[in-house]
Each structure stands twice: as C-alpha cells, then as structure tokens.
C-alpha cells in the first residue's frame, strides 16, 4: 500500500484529532459524541480505540472497585 501524501499541516491536525479522541474516551465520552466532536466517521474512531479498555474496566476491576478501593 503506498504511503499517504500529506499536505502542509495535515499530519499535525490528524495527530491532534487522535489525541483528542483518546482524551475524550478516557473521560468517558460516548463514541458517537467523540466522532461528532472530532468531525470524523465513527469507523475511523473505532479503529483508533480498538483494544483500549473502556473507562472503569481495567484488569477486570469494576468501576465501584476503582472508585471505592
């Protein structure tokens, strides 16, 4: 597959979009809301977040165990 050719500043913008997606997801925002805020399709966001556990689901711990010890 050939490399994607970027215009000036386009690579920076894409990196900032990816960082915003990860930050919003870590804060617990819904995926459809994240896609709307970033201005990308939900499929793009789903590929980016694949394998990242949802908030409160780290190592099999429930949200209650994380917040209340």
Describe this structure as you would to a colleague.
4% of the residues are buried. This protein has a domain of 42 residues. Helix 2 crosses helix 3. It is mainly α and 69 residues long. The N and C termini lie far apart (48 Å). The model has no long low-confidence stretch (mean pLDDT 78).
Structural class: mainly alpha
Order of helices and strands, N to C?
A: HHHH
The multimeric state of the shown protein is single chain
Tell me how many strands there are: 0
Uncertain stretches of 5 or more adjacent residues? none
Give the % helix: 55-70%
Helical region count?
4
| Rg calculated over all Cα atoms | 15 Å
Question: What tags apply to this protein structure?
Answer:
mainly alpha; 4 helices; single chain; 69 residues; 57% helix; elongated
């Amino acid at each position: 597959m050939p490399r994607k050719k970027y215009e000036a500043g386009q690579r920076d913008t894409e990196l900032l979009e990816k960082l915003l997606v990860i930050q919003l997801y870590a804060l617990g925002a819904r995926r459809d809301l994240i896609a709307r805020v970033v201005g990308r399709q939900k499929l793009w966001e789903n590929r980016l977040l694949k394998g990242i556990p949802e908030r409160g689901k780290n190592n099999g711990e429930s949200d209650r165990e994380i917040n209340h010890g």
